[in-house]
Request: fold
Amino acid sequence: MEQEIVLKKENQSFSFLKPLAHILEASIKKDAILKFLKNTGITLVSILLFIGLWHLGAKALYNVEAAYKIEKALSERGNEAAEAERACINSGDSSCQPNTLPSPVQVWESLQSLIADHKVIKADKAAFVEKMADTNTKLLAEGKNPIVYTGRASFIDIILTSIKTVFAGFLLALLIAVPIGIIIGLSPSLRSAFNWFIQVFKPVSPVVWYLLVFMIVKTLYIGDSSDNAFVISFISVGLCAMWATLVNTAMGVSSVDKDYINVAKVLKLGTFQKIFKVILPSSLPLIFTGLRITLSVAWMVLIAIELLAQSQGLGLFVWEEFQNGANDSNSKIIVAMFVIGIIGFLLDRLMLTIQGMVSFNKNEAV
Reply:
């Protein structure tokens, strides 16, 4: 009872500070809100500025090409043809529109068109699956392969194919680079012996890696009529992107504090126990830095490799639209460019989040 009375008196003695505490709390919240609004406002302004400059640039290029088309018609076919060309351009007829950098509005319309196209293709797939359900059931019962939908892929399907390919390549890079990096990192002699190998093959172009993988896979699958584009693509991506993880893993393992190694010796830990309980935990920050770089490189080189391998991903989509030369092809290429950039950013954030979850030093995950 006496303790309660003492506590009440102490609380009453500090009660005059409560208004000050509320003011400070409100001030902190206000500063946080103002900082958030400021950062958001700056971001929105930069986005609007980017779109505005893009619109003005697209309009200027449009006018340059339109003037060239009119001038060409005038010099080759006379004044009447030039006026007809001008009227056609002003009418918005797709047959005579300048084929140059698309405006933000055109890109937005192409995005909507691709989404609508996806819905149509999705409905066609569902109808095909329903139509072939009984037939495929019989084929499966007989031990035969079912009939699958072979129509054109939608833009969403293309994105998913690219994501699947890059993750398969990233997993291959991880499975190759981390074990080899650990082995090399544990031995200074091996590091010296294999340094030439890393320095020679690390800067090799993704095109060359694709050709090498193509030679090998084509021979291994000789006589097989199945499509090997996915296999060739993800192996090429993995081999091209693994070097940052290999180097960082070796560096992380070799730079583990010697005191930790000595403690492991005192505790008489086995080789695998020493690796998994001492070396790997200490090396994680550098390993994850390498993995982040590997994933970014994998996503970048994927576009070129998909184009060469004719894999139904974003790389092939961009190339086919460029070759197509339709009125909305340029807009679709810009849509793909934004999708590639956004997915690359999200993949990096994903790796950063995982690094923050497993890292002992949270400041490493930046």
Remarks:
- The chain has 14 helices and no strands.
